[in-house]
Amino acid sequence: MTDGGVWAGVVSVVLAVLAVICAVQVFRFDSMARATYALLGSLLCVGGEVLLLGLDYLGVVIVLMMTVEMALMGVFMVMFMMNPGGLMPMTMVHNARGAAVISGLVFAGLTAGIFLVPWPVSRTRAPADPTHDLGRALMGPHMLTMMTLGLALFAAIVATVTLATARGRYGPSTPAPPHGPKGPEHPDETEAPERPHEQEAAPERPHVREDSPHAHSREDLTPSHGRQDPAHPRETGSPAHPHGREDPS
Amino acid sequence: MADAWWSVLALPVMLVVAACVAAGFDALLGASAAYGPAGSVRVWGTRAATPLREARRLLGQPARRTKAADTALVRVGTALLPTAALLAGAVLPLGFTAVSDPGVGIVWFNAMEALAWAAVWLTGWGPNAALSMIGGYRFLALGLAYELPHMFALTTAGLGAGSLRVGEVVAAQEGLWFAVWMPVAFAVYLLSALAMAFWGPFDQPVGADAAQGAAAELSGVDRLVFFGGRWLLLVVAAAFSVPLFLGGGHGPLLPAWAWTVVKTAAVLALLIGVRRALPTLRLDRFMGLAWMVLLPLVLLQALAVSVVVVLR
Amino acid sequence: MELRTVLLVAQPGTTEIRLAAERELRRRAWPLAPSPAAADLLILCGPPPIPTPPWLATLHTQLPPPRTLVALHTPDQAATGLLAHPVHLEGQGAEHPAQRPAQRPAEHAEDEGHSEHAAHEEHREHEGPHSEHGEHGGHEDPHSEHGGHGQHGGHGDHGNHGDHGGHAGHHMEGMAERGDDRDGLRLDRWELAYGPGLADWPAGLVLRVVMQGDVVQEAVAGSVDGVPGSGAAYWHEPWLRAARGAEVTCGEAARRRCGARLDSLGRLLAVAGWADQAARARRLRDAVLAATASRPVDPTVLGALSALTRRVRRSRTLRWLTRGLGQLPAARVRALGVSGPAMVAASEGAGDVYDRIRVWLDETDGSTALFTDTGPLPPDSAALPQHPPSAPLLAALPEMLAGAEFACARLVLASLDPDLDDAVPAPAHAHGHPHAPAPAGSGPSHG
User: Region labeled Disordered — which residues (chain C) (predicted)?
Assistant: First the structure.
């Protein structure tokens, strides 16, 4: 083995260990943000491994895609986990025992596969430019498939965006609906709106942890309680009277 | 294009110097708007040195944290920004020499620059603060708006050269710059360069309306690293337009490295000037522009370039 | 020269002090900080209220150490030495024994979901030095909802959490709830208050909002407490003096109105992220306000003024960004009794943010012709700003902000620019007669 080979081996092992550590952390963290980025760390290490295999394009694309995908998870965190910094503790595992059994079995099976399968020995040398060969393999014989897929996916993206904008957030009708979010146009909103993560989040919420912000809540504007009942700040939404000092009479 | 060992050491130094000069230039522009033209050379010098003085102030400032913050995420986020910029810079050729010139250099650049998504989001989410979170959130919207046109602009340059290797893209422009015959891709790249450094009209993630959004809760060294990283990202984004569209080190009379520097400085000055000329683009409006105008345009550009490449 | 980054906080009734402070900061080339974290000097316009209100204590502790608080009691103090009046807030650094138990709850949190304390130990370490400051200072409200977190532990579904997070609007304090968004998705929502610590924010305004992501779902405008009652609005002062029978020239009133419009314009441009033009507007505002009858406005200032308004008027980007945003149509204007630029904007156009900007620009340009007018300002009530012009604006805010993204909400607010000092004793109660001649807000009706 050459010097470079040794180094590649060392790096490979380090990346593999890091990938596993990060992957384990995904399930140990109780913050969605941390879990997401631990997963990203693990996937980046996998991207590094692919790079080490000489598949530059695939490796870099893994890094690119996974970064963007994990970052986009942030949208869902804001939608469903807007709790402070994502620190509202929520467990990332369900059915822990069953999951452990299943994953153990899968791991054992895959590991056994590594040793039991008679791996073919390549008789050809590695191509000089694997990216080029990858492109040929994908776009040569499977050109029609790829083009159809590409178009279909792109159309789906555009259609989704269009559907999403029809309600007005990113579209010509940007100005806010004048009377609040709950217009009469959603009479059926009780019809089971999607509630992903509800299951995870619901049982955890009541248990506010020591360092959760709830323990620290401040009331910096407390004197205003006199004028505005703290229990019903939403009911003052009527434009009847502001709570300023502007009425001297 | 040979890899040179010294380039590994030189790259960070050169990028930091370029960032300092650019920040000084920007401070001069800002000060002349805020305080009027500089009366003397001394005032001029003081103004140009403002970023450095600010950096020194931040270095000496103890960090302040918010309650129940996820400091680890903030640290990872802020540190990731300059790291992403430096890693993306690894494929930047100075003249014809880069730290590395991998066969997929363009994709590498794209991947490293995309780390900024994670960086800004983490920085915004971590402090456990409303405006900070809004800032991080805004970067996701910004990313969704600029990233696809950006990718197609990069792809178009790669198409023109028939390679994703930066060195070969430069070599393909020995006669004619790509900026000349793929102007739309060049323009879109410049826009996305602004956006990836959340600079200029795309600074909504650190917008003034949200008290600097993602950076609202940063102080001390965190703040320095974050905004320093942003400057590095802007420099790298501007510099990468040179090998992609402006012929890299090609040019008469001057040596190749000098051409790279001159072209980079010109692009950088342009990007810095744009910020002064325009208010911040709100992403609810820019999103429509990006998807309905920029994306089709750059796709047509890619089509046109493909046709040329096939025919020639 | 030392570089300080300044968080400038204006209390109601301190417009003149704020202007003096901004002038002084510009002279020293000290930048204004966008947030407390970025600042190392907190300048409070007006004397610090006693006892220290919680919002101020919080704001102060949000500055990174070593933090300095300076209170300017009069406009002159800005020039005589910004740093000559450091203030020590009462109760700073003192522990509030009553509050400690709430911050160090029992080991109650150690249940199954929380076995990961090790991973989060850095959160706990902040608790000591950071949270013992004035965050709870002066917190003696008996009907606190937050006495201890134990009492929250039990409920699964809180109705709401009242007054979380009201201060500078920089921290998320409360716990998110779920609520339907406009598409019927049940999303997390957050109740907070954006308050006096924000840059480019109307002095003393507190906006209580319910947010989902960056979208404002509900908003209520109010004013900050713990500050001395504001006097007459600085921007109305010439008219008030004229009403009392004093000799006021039309030129002075015109300059004041021009200054008011430039102040609003500078604020809006800053919120819109156009820092350079905002800075220009503020420089020109100060130049116009500094002029007197004997020392008229410099011709170069007039030139720069028309250049600025031309530039802003011609900006297609600004038009694209603000068209259709924050519409206050004529019908609502009448119903609410809105006066001033918002009323003109509604009668001349769609009444959106851009229309209001245009009215400001028109009034700015229009007032320059009167700068040197030495005729007396008529003391009749028609020239007086109508009965509190900002009150209807504050009343309009909830309906205008609901459903707006944060950025849009800031623009809408800045385009209305309510002035909480507007508690003008208006002898002629013009309320309900929006077609009465005075284009109130802060301007002379004639011209």
Answer: 92-181, 424-447
